[in-house]
Amino acid sequence: MDKFQIHGGRRLQGTVPIDGAKNAALPAMAMALLTSEPVTIENIPHVHDIVTMRRLLEHMRARVSPLEENPHAVTIQAAEISHAEAPYDLVKTMRASILTLGPLLARSGYARISLPGGCAIGARPVDLHIRALEQMGAQISLDHGYVEARAERLHGAEISFEKITVTGTENIMAAAALADGETVLTNAAREPEIEDCANLLNKMGAKIEDAGASTIRIQGVASLHGAIHTIIPDRIETGTFAVAAAITAGDLLLTHCNPDHIAAVIEKLSSCGVEFSADRAKPGELRVRAGSRLDGRDLTTEEYPGFATDMQAQYMALMTQAEGESEITETIFENRYLHASEMTRLGADISISGSQAVVRGPTPLIGARVIASDLRASACLVLAGLAASNTTSIDRVYHIDRGYECIEEKLRAVGADIERIK
Ligand code: UD1
User: Are 224 and 35 in contact (CB under 8 A)?
Assistant: First the structure.
């Protein structure tokens, strides 16, 4: 298993290009199952979750061809669905495999998907996906750890999600796109990835209105066709590099990003003293500079447009270097502070009580050997390692490879001393 070795204390300065959003690319790839025609997706990040989704689609007998002229694009063609199953071995490494449930069921009338089970950051059930599909006429049973779903043809329904779910909203939008009649989703997720997914589906011939709002209307159509689509920039990678600038007293220009998608992060970090500037003449660019001081501020994670849970761990790393006490409240996942104990090993002063964490800063961080426990927890440890004195060694960086493309190369290019040890 690869490790990162970081010699911290270097100021980061330079330009960082942001990749396409993993969490928009994964649903986009799954949507290709809805048509027999080729769907080309551009701006796909080279991260391990994308490799897993590719394997899953190939397992379902779809053809996934990288484009020679564009290494960040693939064409997916699911000419026919002969194997509508997502096996445990793939699902256990990537919960987003559940995104194939809606498209498979709508296209072929059958899907058998392994239950994701528990994962490092909480129980994460899929009951809301299942209940919504049942409302649309699916017969669903649970058998030997698999969800087995059948429906001759799904029909439209009025679905009110009890809790906001991102992949749940995407799955049901996909199913409704090919259902008979109108589906209305209320309390839908409003993340930019939802709108991106709907834009792709609409290019494929779907009739989806108001994606990005909490009520979405979908008129089912008889069939969908091929399309070409470019994925939006990764807002979590953008936010992670913003914290990298702030925590190293640095100055980074982030390019190919969408600052509007991280408005909550910009607002929170600005209130701590981090400086942001965007030039209207250069959309897609955001400059982030550490300010003259860094103050601790409380944070509560929320669904979009609030501060994303996927940025909570990185924010915690920053707060260890801020003046005063900051209280963090995690409202989306019940067990998302696994990074805190590793941060303590680096010298952070953090106490956890249920969904709340209190960080007292600033504390000098001193390099140590630590273990990454999930994707964003690993980002937190990398950020802490950049700020720490001496050497930080991070085990199990396969977690970070799931969601960040070549993070060590991007960091090295702006002055970090970070090495991957194979
Ligand atoms: C997506 C993101 C993930 C992000 C999360 C929250 C992808 C591929 N992943 O995950 O990076 O951290 O949104 O922004 O886009 N829940 C249920 N029942 C369900 C579904 C969800 O109780 O059927 C609960 C979950 O346990 C969690 C909350 O709802 O507490 C939100 O989860 P959800 O939005 O579904 O997360 P994902 O879509 O899995």
Answer: yes
